[in-house]
Amino acid sequence: MPPPPPQASLKLSESLPRYRPSKSFQDTHPNAEITSLDFDDSGEFCIAASDDETLQLYDCRLGKHQKQLFSKKYGVHLAKFTHTTTQVIYASTKENDTIRYLSLHDNSYRRYFVGHTGKVNCLEVCPTSDQFISTSMDNTLKLWDLNSQHFHGQLVLPSPLLAAFDPSGIIFAVATPHSAPPSILLYDLRNYDKQPFATFPLPDTKYLQSTRQAMPTWSKLEFSNDGKNLLLGTTGNHHYIIDSFKGSLVTRLIRDRGPPKRQNGHTWGTSGDVCWAPDARFVIGAMAGAGQQGSADGGKGGVGLWDMGKGIPVEGCLRPGWELECPREAGGAGCVAFNGRSGLFATAGREVVFWLPEMGEAGTGGIH
């Protein structure tokens, strides 16, 4: 039985603004970009998938690169640890739409999950079992078990783009941005074949019209660690926090300068440039076209910290309280992930960067 989902063991309200880049890794091709990040259950390892068709494994305790693995024939995206430190699943970007189950120990495939007929755009492993979810451009969501090559459940939905398990592993959410209106659907894993028990429409037309924006592309769906809220990340100038019980909009997280631009123009996006901190109070995300020439900040880029513990402004838009500077050479924060076991978070663009608190300093943004 896999361990329970990690709980925040650190008081982050004071330490997060003191986080600084601790270690940078440039192990991919110089022109490659990293498209996904994930930590294993123990918090000891980080896996990065890159568009140069490699997987990079990092030891978080030692702060070192562990090994490189290749997937040249099939490509690699959305690499996710199973409940062991030596096995991952990932989506193919070439040849076919098969999901591959890889042993990192000997670089051999344990199983192939065949069934999708379109690009897989989301993979999520259940936090409490060996089940996982995939969504695809073939308009299906499939439920799998790591012990079988055949999917055991399927939902046909209008362009399912993202999925997420709640911390209990009982509920899963599905984002369908092309339904009318764009919505998030909640299902009980034990009765997934029935209608969703909750549907949260997210038209947000009044705000979008007032700011002359179209609905941005949705890029990340994640439950907070206490299960109370959902983070819906986008590729635009704002993200959404949604009450996971009522479906009401809690706040928009504003980032004025927009997201990082991806140099290589790949169509499969990233695993998301925004995430929850383990205490369910802070959200961490990319702030600018980090590392890009001509970006508003001169190419430095930044990581924003949104603190919901100080209350939500009347207009329902929350701006970052702090901004931390990314190393220029790292290529920004196209992917962001938090290691709830160790208190480390990682960002990735051209390089993987580990962040840890530096004692005795405040955040650099000066926005709060």
UniProtKB/TrEMBL annotation:
SMART domains: WD40. Its main location: nucleus. It is found in: Nucleus. Keywords: Nucleus, Repeat, WD repeat. Pfam families: WD40 (PF00400). The keyword Phosphoprotein does not apply. GO terms for cellular component: Set1C/COMPASS complex. InterPro entries: Swd2/WDR82, WD40/YVTN_repeat-like_dom_sf, WD40_repeat_dom_sf, WD40_rpt. Belongs to the WD repeat SWD2 family. This is WD40 repeat-like protein. It comes from Terfezia boudieri ATCC MYA-4762.
